[in-house]
């Protein structure tokens, strides 16, 4: 028996890193998964992996900044599986670096459109179906607004995630009377394709071995290694399951002990 047996979970932002691992983790727990992302080729690839693992899957190209797309993935889940028990919000725009003084604020608005408004639009579309099942909303936040790092200065990204954390806590109270719990995972550095690409980029630009860059990033961590995309995905799936039913409005930092709160 898996934690998600008979249950249906929507996962937004299914890329080759955390989104993919979350889809596979939900499948291992017996869940039906409904996948959304902007890149159809990635959706097809991950859906085929879910099916190869024995899971049931549906997918649709989804831009969460488009309200019609958000409603469409909800409608697809209900059409294919008849219910929605969990929504895991992975989709994010994290490619805008730097601080305020030299910022392009139009880029900042794009970051907020995806990370804040897009996530909340998808939540609002899913809540009527989640209410029927007393389901769960899980948000991927970030450690960066709790503990900014000069290694990857992302004021826009961190600010958007901080705003989303506040919204998560208010939303927990708003939909709590309907039996819906709302929580967030705040990862630090996660070892997977995106961070591996960053390490390799820094290695090339500095002319050092990738292990040098990786060891520097991991030095402050109690475990002396990064949490992996798969490990973070397992926690996301836990919060989307009935086992987390008594928990709401909470933030779980997953950072291999880099900071402790």
Compact description:
By secondary structure, the protein is an alpha/beta fold. It is built from eight helices and nine strands.
Provide an overview of this structure:
With 261 residues, this protein is α/β, with parallel strands linked by helices. It has two domains: 8-188 and 228-254, 3-Layer(aba) Sandwich (Rossmann fold); 190-225, no CATH class. It contains eight helices and nine strands. The strands form two sheets. The protein has a seven-stranded parallel β-sheet, sandwiched between helices. Strands 7-8 form a two-stranded parallel ribbon. Helix 1 (18-28) links the parallel strand 1 and strand 2. Helix 4 (105-133) packs parallel to helix 5 (155-175). The longest helix is centred in the middle third of the chain and has 29 residues, at 105-133. The protein is globular and about 55 Å long. The mean pLDDT is 94.
Strand content: 15-25%
Q: What oligomeric state do the depicted chains represent?
A: single chain
Tell me the CATH superfamily of the largest domain.
NAD(P)-binding Rossmann-like Domain
The neighbouring-strand order within the major sheet is: 3-2-1-4-5-6-9
Spatial extent as radius of gyration: 18 Å
Cα-to-Cα separation, first versus last residue = 34 Å
The CATH topology assignment of the largest domain is Rossmann fold
CATH level-two architecture of the largest domain = 3-Layer(aba) Sandwich
Number of helices: 8
List low-pLDDT spans: none
CATH class of the largest domain: Alpha Beta
Mean pLDDT: 94
Number of domains: 2
Q: Give the ordered list of helices and strands.
A: EHEHEHEHEHEEHHEHE
The shape, in one word, is: globular
């Amino acid at each position: 028996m898996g934690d998600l047996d008979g249950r249906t979970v929507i996962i937004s932002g299914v890329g080759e890193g955390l989104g993919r691992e979350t889809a596979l983790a939900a499948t291992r727990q017996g869940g039906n998964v409904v996948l959304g992302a902007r890149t159809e080729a990635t959706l097809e690839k991950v859906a085929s992996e879910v099916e190869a693992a024995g899971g049931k899957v549906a997918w649709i190209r989804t831009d969460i900044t488009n309200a019609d797309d958000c409603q469409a993935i909800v409608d697809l889940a209900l059409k294919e599986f008849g219910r929605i028990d969990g929504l895991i919000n992975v989709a994010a725009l994290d490619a805008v670096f730097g601080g305020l003084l030299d910022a392009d604020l139009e880029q900042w608005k794009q970051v907020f459109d995806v990370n804040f408004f897009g996530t909340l639009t998808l939540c609002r579309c899913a809540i009527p179906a989640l209410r029927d099942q007393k389901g769960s909303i899980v948000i991927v936040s970030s450690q960066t607004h709790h503990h900014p790092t000069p290694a990857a200065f992302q004021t826009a990204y961190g600010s958007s995630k901080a705003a989303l954390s506040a919204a998560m806590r208010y939303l927990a109270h708003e939909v709590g009377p309907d039996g819906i719990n709302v929580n967030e995972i705040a990862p630090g550095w996660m070892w997977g394709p995106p961070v591996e690409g960053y390490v390799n980029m820094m290695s090339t630009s500095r002319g050092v071995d990738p292990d040098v860059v990786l060891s520097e990033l991991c030095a402050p961590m109690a475990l002396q290694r990064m949490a992996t995309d798969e490990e973070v995905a397992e926690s996301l799936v836990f919060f989307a399951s009935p086992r987390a039913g008594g928990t709401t409005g909470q933030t779980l930092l997953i950072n291999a002990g880099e900071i402790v709160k």
